[in-house]
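[User] At your convenience, examine this fold.
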Amino acid sequence: MAQAGPFLGNPACTYSVRGSNLGVDGAVQIAHMVIWKAPNYEVAKATGLTSGDVVVPGVGDDAYYDPNNTGIVFHKGDTVYFVLAQFKAPVGVVLDAAKMKADVVALAKAVAGTL
């Protein structure tokens, strides 16, 4: 089920995920960063890369993944999107970070493919 709502003043939808391949339920959020354009994206990317974010090839014109927030920001032309995974592991369980990243990247590719 999708729930519309703002993300940092931008239009966004949050989708519930049940029975994920991570072994837990959670949500994914997709935000169209209407207040950002490609130059804003470049500034955010430069800042993020100094704090552990990594470039992700093949998503839009350019993309980077933030492992701390389990989200990817990408732009295609002057359109910028943020795709975020929101999954919390039960106490004593560690989620597979590589699988989380792969799933977020796959979703971001699907979103970028519609633009």
User: Anything to note?
Assistant: The CA atoms of residues 14 and 29 lie 4 Å apart. The two ends are 22 Å apart (CA to CA). Residues 2-113 form one domain.
